[in-house]
Amino acid sequence: MKNTMRVTEDLYYIGASDRRIALFESAFPVPRGVSYNSYLLLDEKTVLFDTVDAAVTEEFLHNLESVLGARTLDYLVVQHVEPDHSASFARVLERYPEVCVVASAKAAVMLKNFFSYEGATVVKEGDALETGKHRLRFLAAPMVHWPEVLFTYDEVAGTLFSADAFGTFGALGGSIFADEVQFERDFLDDARRYYFNIVGKYGVQVQSVLKKAAALEIKTVCPLHGPIWRKDFAWYLQKYDIWSKYAPETQGAAVFYASIYGHTQNAAEILAAALAAEGVKEIAVYDVSVTDKSVLLAEAFRYSHAVFLSPTYNNGIFVNMEDFLRDLCAHGYCNRRYALAENGSWAPQAARLMQETLSSCKNMQKVGESVTVLSAVTTQNAQELKALAREIAKSFD
Ligand code: FEO
Predict the structure, then answer these.
(1) 363 C-alpha to ligand 1 centroid (Å)
(2) In the predicted model, is pLDDT for residue 397 greater than 90?
(3) 0.70 exceeded by pTM
(4) What residues does ligand 1 touch, defined as CB less than 6 Å away?
(5) What's the Cα-to-Cα distance from 379 to each of 185, 308, 383, 384, 393, rounded to whole Å?
């Protein structure tokens, strides 16, 4: 049975959610599932905006056929060729062989490479498609999150089809609208994790499309994952602005530690308690060997300050901390204050090596002296950690 919802007068949600998926992109845990959004405009011409992941192809096709009824599909606008949105492309073409596929030049190449399809009508920034009552204007959104991405703006309805932008992990359950769910409570952490892990490396490009969006009168935002926005979008837009400027969202300290036998954890907890005693209100403590890297990444970007504590291992940084730091740097981590502590039973190296790794990140300010623990935390180490906490607390703006 079809499960579709009306978004605006002529627009229908025909996507579906996957709650069986364990890892999105084979990398990111999604315990709350994920939705693959697809939209169908019923005007004098019919227009499909993207397809869905292979996991929900059958539900999607059923929805598409049900909403179209006896009508045919006139246009398929391919905004993003990544397979979570294009896996059902060939099935749509099989069912509607006369459909006109509209895509950017780069998307046309990708459609050839993925599907051996060479019939796309190529559009570029500023081109428009008249569908009857509606007029669709295309905006280039390169690297949000692949180079071929297009946004589409319905000039008549004020609807922005925003591809991956403004999306989030988390299946849709019942309502498809952000104003009908507890977005801040139930989706914001997943939205931040989605942003920094999927799109975060491309903050400059996100800023560029935010500027384009600011010039539009937007009533509805239809992303390819997660709830649709039709109220209070400015609140979410501001989050995107903060995130894409690499500015901290929370004035506080995230304490990230790796620990093999508990001594570095002990140092991390002494430091966190000292931060609290110094009046730092927002503190989060993570064992990088336990918490998923995608959560660690989002939390590092969320906070203004970070403290990294690691044992020395094989004359290097402990492997899980090393992986985390490299992932942070690869995602453009910058503009933060940080402090370091290391452990090493005979040749501590981790602090120097962590600092070297972080030196590839822009505008990072080290706070205080690195603390060195030689096996177990001593009374002197505890004093050094408390002194470091004082320095960190003083460094807040
Ligand atoms: Fe949801 Fe970049 O794909």
Answers:
(1) 29
(2) no
(3) yes
(4) 80, 82, 84-85, 145-146, 164, 224-225
(5) 41, 20, 6, 9, 21
